[in-house]
Amino acid sequence: MEFSSGRARLKHYRLAGDRRDLYPHSLQFYLDPPTENISLVEFESFAIDRLRLLKVVESLGVTYAKGNDSYKTKLGSELRKLKFPYKALAEDDYEARRKDHISHFILRLAYCQTEDLRRWFLQQEMDLLRYRFNELTDSLRQKFLEYVNLSFEAVSEDLKNELANELCTSTPGLSMIKVKEQMFYKVGLVDAVDLFRARKVFIKDGFAYVPLKDINAIVLNNYRTKLSKALALTARSLPSIQSDERLQPLLNHLSHSYVGPDYSVQKNTGKISLEQIDALSVKSFPICMRQLHKALRDNHHLRHGGRMQYGLFLKGIGLTLEQALEFWKKEFIRGKVDAEKFDKGYAYSIRHNYGKEGKRTDYTPYSCMKIIMSNPPSQGDYHGCPFRHCDPELLKQKLQSYKIPPSGVTQVRHILFG
């Protein structure tokens, strides 16, 4: 993509013919940049709507098992509300397809700037594609595979019935009933090499007979490879875009935006007591703050990252400055910090968080995105997001210690690690 300095424009080339030829399918791999000029107003509007959609994708992926009915219902509703393509049957959804195409490339610019941003964007876009691919009818799914040059031949019902026993015994997790219900595709061994090595598919005459559930994985892996490479190439072109004084602030704003409710607004200051904190930490704290509270009680100390993350959270749930100073001082004195050292070395930063020192900024609690994307914990640290930064087995043990039932632990592991 190229931009002129006079106005935001997605400048490439303009295709002739019916405008529907630009977007022959509601789903795509976003291989070709947009072909038209757009205003700054539309630029920002499209980007914010897609960012809001990706935030919903992220939130639903944590709350529900990806693909269950609640997940699909809520994500489909959001696609309709934000006017992105949600049903591939419609032939007159040019504006929705156009918005989908352009907004993806705008956010690609905003989220290619760091490795963490690229990783986040890639994951949400893959989850979105997975949902939309699974919503296609059999015929449209076949057309999409041809459209993205993954021309896997659908196995006819007659051939599937003929090979039913082999398909059932060669495909883990599929009963004879599920074999009859499931679509299968003939896939070259190059594309199905991982399934072949794991002995998860039936092989005949140089083709793997892959069920729809595993076609998803092949499509997503192909998309991941293409988008990951595209993000890296986009990052290299950033210097030419950063010279545009009108675009760069917008892109920076998008990559740091939080488009959900503002939970950091101070509404309950002074409405909890110090005596309530231990009980609340077990009953009501998010896992990241519960982890920090336990580490503080166990070690009577937290490093700077932990103090900032937990201190601003305590401020956000209602501790006054006086309560915060008392809370931290009592705990640190129980460790290796005496009262004088605390007053000299730690009290200033607590007052600073409450806007009483330095620039007098009244700081708000960290958002989930800030916790996830910045200042990862190192050895001896307890801040960060356990779902992002913990070893999977350690996270499992932690969830079990919090009395999460085995089914819940399994669901969390499935959502996070597949």
TrEMBL record:
Q: Name one GO cellular component term.
A: alpha DNA polymerase:primase complex
InterPro entries on file: DNA_primase_C, DNA_primase_lsu_euk, DNA_primase_lsu_euk/arc
Where, in this chain's numbering, is [4Fe-4S] cluster bound?
288, 368, 385
Keywords on this record? 4Fe-4S, DNA replication, DNA-binding, Iron, Iron-sulfur, Metal-binding, Primosome
Domain DNA primase large subunit C-terminal: from-to ranges: 279-413
Q: Does the keyword tRNA-binding apply?
A: no
Q: Which CDD domains match?
A: PriL_PriS_Eukaryotic
Which PANTHER family does this UniProt record tie to the protein? DNA PRIMASE LARGE SUBUNIT (PTHR10537)
Family membership, please give it: Belongs to the eukaryotic-type primase large subunit family.
Provide the protein name: DNA primase large subunit
